[in-house]
Each structure stands twice: as structure tokens, then as C-alpha cells.
Amino acid sequence: MAKIEVTILGSSAGIPTRQRAHPAIFLAYKDREEFCYLFDCGEGTQRQMLFAGLNPMKLREIFITHWHGDHYLGLPGLIDTMGFENRKKSLTIYAPEAERIRKILNWGYSLKRFEVVPIDVPIKTKEVTILLETENFKIGSIPVEHGIPSVAYLFLEKDRIKVDKEKAKKMGLPSQGIIYREIKKKGEVIFKNKKIKLKEISSVKKGRKIVYSGDTRVCENLIKLAKGADLLIQDCTYFDSGEFKEYEHASLRDITNMVEKIEVKKVILTHISRRYKNPKELRRQIKDYPSLVLAEDFMKIII
Ligand SMILES: [Zn+2]
Fold first, then answer.
1. Which residues carry out catalysis?
2. Are the C-beta atoms of residues 271 and 12 closer than 8 Å to each other?
């Protein structure tokens, strides 16, 4: 089975601290081939990648949740480095109002050895938009509520059909052969005058689901997207409840209310305001919620 490795490169909110850099999440899907993506790219992200032992040259696409400085100011430096390192392959950057990237790249006289392709993600829909699809997974977005155009992202592995060789044997099928490819493709085969259906000899292995909220209040679209996730990386700017609503972020209370209603296996609380200086105290506050984990820079989650 493919390994999914998620690295939190930055877990601070608007202002970084000595312990927490600006937001960025590196996701690697390691199958026969490796697929690497970056979600948000706060200032200093490329250096955080170096410390984490991650290679920026492996990045296929970048996904920006919104254009607040803490979520994108690492892009010009990262793209410059890719130029120095002789990247030739074009780089696609998905974001709401994606054309903004062109302005950013024209700030200076950076090397332009490869093409940067901006792709807009919808900001007015209640449905998930699939942005990218491979043989094994999809990446999509949905708008969220942050006062400016913002989205949450979804990484969804496709369900896998697993043939149960014992069941197949009982149905009289050979232990291997082209027939399995055929039955997976068509859903059924005729073998020795007998119709055998795929579901009779297989089980479905559910694909893994990862959601990154970006910056947002807890809202309908986020709840819809997060439902059933194996991993939710969630804006939790405020551990105090209520009074920060006007800033369009989620508080710990909003999040505990949400995860009580929907099934989420693990929630990484990130985008932590610098006002909270003592992580032990924050962990104490979440100790009664076994699915909640406080983010730290360089935290790796293997799913
Ligand atoms: Zn923001």
C-alpha cells in the first residue's frame, strides 16, 4: 500500500515565533512513483523544507489557500531556488484569484527558466471542485469563510478493490492470470460457462482522506469536506473561545463542537496564535479529546 507522509513545515498564525514558522504543509504520496505537493507556502518555507530533509525540486504542484502574506510569501524565494536548480518542468499553482501570482513573480528580476501556470480555484460554490486526478488519488477544493476569497483543500485516495484469492479459488478461478485484470475492468467475467461477479470475490478498501482547512471559521463547506477524514489539518488560531469571531478563524471550542458531530480520525490543530507561549498548557486543554493533536513544526504524520 502506498505511504502518505504529511509534514507540517509551519504551524504559526500571522506572526511567526522562534518555534513556529508560517504555514506550509508538504504531502508526499509514495507509491511506485513519488508524488509531492505543497499546501500554502509561508515565508521561509524552502528553508523549513531543508531542515525537514524534503527536496523542493520534487514538488509537482502548489496549492495556496488564500492571499494573506503568511500563506504565500515563501513563493518568490522558492520559485527563484527552483530556477537556480535548473527546473525546466512547468509549475502549476492553484489558488483563488490565481493570477495574483504573476504580479508576485514580477517584483524583481528573477530567473525565468520554467513556466509558472496559475490555475483558479472556484470561490463561489458549495461543492467540491476536483482540480487534479491521478490513477490513485484526487485533489480538490471548496470555498471557506475567511473574509477574503479562501479555500480548503482535499486529498482523496481512490477506493481500492482487493481481490480475495481464497474466495476466487472457491469460485473456481485460477490463482493468477489476465482474468483478474478483466474482471476488475468489466465488473464480471464468464469463466468456464459461469458468470463471476467482481463483488463476489473482492472487498473494497476505502481510500484515505486528508483535509486542510486553510484559514477559516468553522462553516458548512468545511464540515462537509472534513466529514470522515482520516486527517484534518485545522486552523485553530485561538484556544480561548468566542471573542475572536470577527477575525474569521476557528477557535478550539468551534473545532471540538465540529468534531463531535462528524467522524474525523485525527485533527492537527495548527495556525497557532503567538499569544499562546506554553504548548504544555495547550495540550492540557485538549487532553480530553483523543483525536486532537497540537501541531509543531516538522511534525510528520504517516497515514
Ligand atoms: Zn488568513
1. 70
2. yes
